Structures are given as C-alpha cells and as structure tokens.
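hey m, so remember when u said the tokens were messed up on ur end? i reran from scratch. heres the input so u can diff it against urs
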Amino acid sequence: RRLMREDIEQEFILESALWKTRADPGQIIQVILNLAINGRDAMPKGGKLTFRTANVTFDDIVSIHGIDVSPGKYVLLSVTDTGTGMGAQTLERVFEPFFTTKDTGKGTGLGLATVYGIVKQSGGYVFADSEMGKGSTFTIHLPQCEQRAAAPVSEGRVSLSRNNGRNGSETLLVVEDET
C-alpha cells in the first residue's frame, strides 16, 4: 500500500485454492511490484489497479498474441490499470531492456524486461494488452507444479528472540498522515 497513492483504488480478485507453481517467491514479489509501480505511474490522476489470480487449463495449444502456449495447467496472475494505456508501437517494445515511456530520470526501462526474464526463467509466459486511454493488462501464466517443495535445510538453531530482559516494555512509534 505504501507504493500506491491515495487516489488509486486497489482491487484483489484472488483464487481461493490457487495451484502451486515453481517460481522463486522473492522474484514473484519483484514481478508484482514492477507491474504495480508501472500501473501507478500510468495513472497520474488516479484510477484503479486490479490484481487477479486464477487457475487456468489449456487442453490444446493456445496462441496468444502470436505466441503458442503449450497445453497444460497454469497459475494466472494479472495486473490491470485504468491508466493512459499504450499504442501498438509501444506495446511491441514493452519488454525490451532500457525501453521506457517515462520522462528522463523517472524510469530505467528495466522493470518490464525484468518481469519478462523472471517469468521466462520460471517456464511461464507474459503478455501485455493495452489501448490508448483505456489502460493496460499484464497477464502471466506460470506452469502448475505437482511436486511438493523440499523442506528447508537448517544449519543449526537460530534464535530470533531479542528480549534483553525488557519483557515487552518497548515503545512503538506509529506515524500516519491520515486521520
């Protein structure tokens, strides 16, 4: 929420029983943050940012924007903004490294290239749909993984306790600019 301005409404449409997929959690967080920040920046006067997850199955090869998606089960993640949108020429280059539509000093052009790289590394697909004045949707399909994750290997015990004999007498300062 700290990344979003107060004039941006956030909606979450999340599948209650999402399938497992094999992807690095830290990298998926980076994907979501990059898409959210781009969505925020595309809505300078506010708008709505929608995050959606779902389970999808393709029984046959499906062609999406000329790319063949293999049959199988996928975990879908999409991020939609109601921002300025992109034209066809911009859309063609949107995943290129160092390509940006932002003003100088406002972006590096690496956010969507990073999203693309992470999704591809995870065996998935990422697509962008947009129309000028009507916002953008980025849709990711990550293959379902039936295997259970391996249990983390612990190298001895680590204590996270920092009691220092105070027993909960610390002071917590909360700063908020909203009433």
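this time it looks ok to me. The radius of gyration is 20 Å. if urs says something different then somethings off w ur setup not the seq
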